[in-house]
Please model this.
Amino acid sequence: MIIEEIALYHLRMPLVAPFETSFGRITDRECILIRLRGEGLTGWGECVADRDPGYAYETAGTAWHILTEFLAPAILGQDVADPADFQARVARVRGHPMAKAGVELALWDLLGRREGRSLRELLGGRRDGVEVGVSVGLQASPAALVEAVARYLDQGYGRIKIKIKPGRDVADAEAVRRAFPHIRLQVDANSAYTLKTAAALRPLDDLDLLLIEQPLAEDDMWDHSKLQTQFSTPICLDESILSARHAQQALEMKACRVINIKAGRVGGLSQAVAIHDLCRTAGVPVWCGGMLETGVGRAGNLALASLPGFTLPGDISATDRYYRQDITQEQFVLNPDSTINVPSGPGLGVTVDEGAVAKFCVKQCLLVRS
Ligand code: OSB
Ligand code: MG
Model:
């Protein structure tokens, strides 16, 4: 497929409520939408890098730089056969997985539309609907957290994840567990602890949690392996896993017993599928993480989560958990059994609302083959 045109849109989307983690609090979500055109067809992708380098070093600003200066020139006017061919063309760009993943997603959408096949089909997904949960940010107090969790349970979410940080961990988790003794519950620290300070988390082991996500630094797989020996609750890695090679090493080291897969974090859906395949062979459960995506990224996550190894509920919530107005015409809704339907149309199976894109766009750029 010859890539004839590339458009980039830096968006700033107001969230329905502020989202707070151990690395900060946001009221708007930024991202970069990527639109590829070729053979009269259009494909959309989303780069999940946010405004600040809190979760990862990439930001919307660094991604803009990498996209315009390196990734777009590597494919504009070129005949890009498939996602593997795309990755080979950008292999000389070290790092910047979120920027690469955004383009790879747009390419999957484009190729799916050309073949008239859904992304789910292209990836080998098997389910029409995937089990999901909700990621609840830090609240003002444990009581406010219990209230927020109650609202999501009322809406039908069958799995709750709460964010924790030093000083806001055991008491928060205990309050939720006390209020809801039987729910599926997990916690996410977003790298806020060290092996030493993580000793404070020991009481979490008695709360029947599904997992403890990324307690230690992203580049500290070794200490995660030491920490896992001190907990019977599975440790799950998010930030630490940037490739299938990392996943292999984490399993060899016993640094975790579960992996959160995010296509953005690992450089694209092709690497995400490779991690899924490796974990499936090893009998290690995986689940699909989220980055507060728009409808474009969410459609990609749903397709990914339909693969058979995704045996734990994903951080893929309904549109109205994130945005009052999204940039796709489709709104994702939660079914009563805590699932969300996987789009079945060609490619991502969603239609981008260009008016909404224009409304939330703070910067744009159009690159056309000369
Ligand atoms: O660590 O999983 C995370 C959002 C932004 C950055 C990092 C994370 C998250 C979430 C939200 O937990 C998950 C979602 O999209 O619903
Ligand atoms: Mg996480």
Observations:
- The pocket of magnesium ion (ligand 2) is lined by residues 188, 190, 213-214, 238, 260, 289 (CB under 6 Å).
- The longest helix spans residues 97-115.
- Residues 121-341 form a domain with the TIM Barrel fold (CATH 3.20.20.120).
